[in-house]
Amino acid sequence: MSELDGFTTMKRMAYLVAVLFLAAACKADPESMMQAAALDWDEPVKVASGQAYQGPWRMNDSEFLYVDDPAVALHAENTFMAWVDNAEQEVYFQVFDHDGQARMDGPVNVSGSGDVFSWLPRVAVEGETVIIAWEEILFTGGSHGGEILVARSGDGGRSFSEPVNLSNTTAGAGKGRLNPQRWDNGSLDVVIRDGQVHVAWTEYEGALRVASSNDSGQRFSEPVHVAGDDDAPTRAPSLAVGPDGRVWLAWTVGDNAAADIHLAWSDAPENGFSDARRIHASNDHADSPVIAVANDGRVHLAWTSSEGRPFRNSRIVHAHDADGSGPFSEPVVISGDKTAAYPQLAVAGARVLASWESVPRGARRPIGIGHAASDDGGGTFSAPGEIPGTARPEYGVNGGNQGLLMRKLALDERGRVALGHATFQEGEASHVWLLHGQWH
């Protein structure tokens, strides 16, 4: 019997429940009915497996035995996926078709540094160019080890260049400081468009920096300091590129119970960014922003909004603006009344898809992935639901043991969806999964 027996039945039942819910909403109040997004999900594909043990922190001698940190990108007919094997301390990469079949004989080792932890990769693809950026736990002085490394492939991911260190700092690159005692690793992002590659990251000591390349990642500029310092540390950068080539950068701040989302743009990031502006400043705590730009220039933002302090009764909210220059729409809660955090966001035309880490009542770790969708440019969203196959007790809690700042959701113009997911059942097994969906 397959370990995924019963999944198809569960998926059909979940879809039926969603249809009945929406039908009831329509009957009760047609004007306020949330739009239904016809998203069909395939069975999860198990990409990698490992033990599930995390010993005490001893820097790169720590005994961390698990797989984690999926990242995905869609391009042409393929899904490009990276993940981490902490037992081997490496970043791995594979290409899949939309049926979940691997395109290459085996995973490619991207980092090639088995004596140093490599965490929370990002993937960006254009043509045959694949860019992977990640946080490497190099201890070169300072209080926190962390550098931003990038590797490039010019043959669709079959081979990669030697990694290049973009940060070269003792300030703890890749750390998203929430307060002096708490931070997320994986505070970085990467985008590519028309051969222009941009990598953003924050440091534990506060700065937000961006390095750029105009030759598909072969050479990078010196990093530009965009914002932040030790008194106002930046956190959780997110990059997007508009149809006109304008680069958008969103982030939040640490050491602030009323943190807000900040937004800046640039037409030439190697020369700096515009002055930052706050999006819907309030007394709530805004965290983990993600930004996406549609092909008509509409700028979308989603983030975690909490009541008065980080992750207290947290929800996922969404707001948008026609071109990012004016006031954004009022933030709308799209995750329902359940605790949710760390959103993902993907946009293609008028389709907007958000996902998030779901935290059941009383749980200390997320279990399962929630989602909501819009097919009218973010004007209305479907009722929030759980992505089938992401919350299964036999596989334990969600991954993200070193931080939940990830980029693991992708959507293309044909309505194809890819989602990376990790699970951790302590003392038993860890897994990295790939889920494909189709938007009809």
- What integer value in Å does the Rg equal? 20 Å
Q: What fraction of the residues are assigned to beta strands by DSSP?
A: over 45%
From the 3D structure, determine the CATH topology of the largest domain. Answer: Neuraminidase
Class from secondary-structure proportions? mainly beta
Say how many strands there are: 34
| Weakly predicted, low-confidence segments | 1-36
CATH class of the largest domain: Mainly Beta
Explain what this protein looks like in three dimensions.
Mean pLDDT is 92; it is low at 1-36. The protein is mainly β and 440 residues long. It starts with 6 loop residues before the first helix and ends with a strand. The protein is globular. It folds into two domains: 7-36; 37-439, Neuraminidase (6 Propeller). The strands form nine sheets. Strands 1, 2, 31, 32, 33 and 34 form a six-stranded antiparallel beta sheet that branches. The protein has a four-stranded antiparallel beta sheet with strand order 5-6-7-8, with no helix packed on it. The chain has a four-stranded antiparallel beta sheet with strand order 9-10-11-12, with no helix packed on it. It has one helix at residues 7-28, and strands at 39-41, 45-50, 53-54, 64-65, 67-75, 78-85, 90-97, 108-109, 118-126, 129-136, 147-153, 164-165, 176-179, 182-184, 188-193, 196-202, 208-213, 224-227, 234-241, 247-253, 261-266, 277-279, 285-293, 299-306, 315-321, 332-333, 339-348, 351-359, 369-374, 385-386, 397-398, 409-411, 416-425, 429-439. A hairpin with a 2-residue loop joins strand 27 and strand 28.
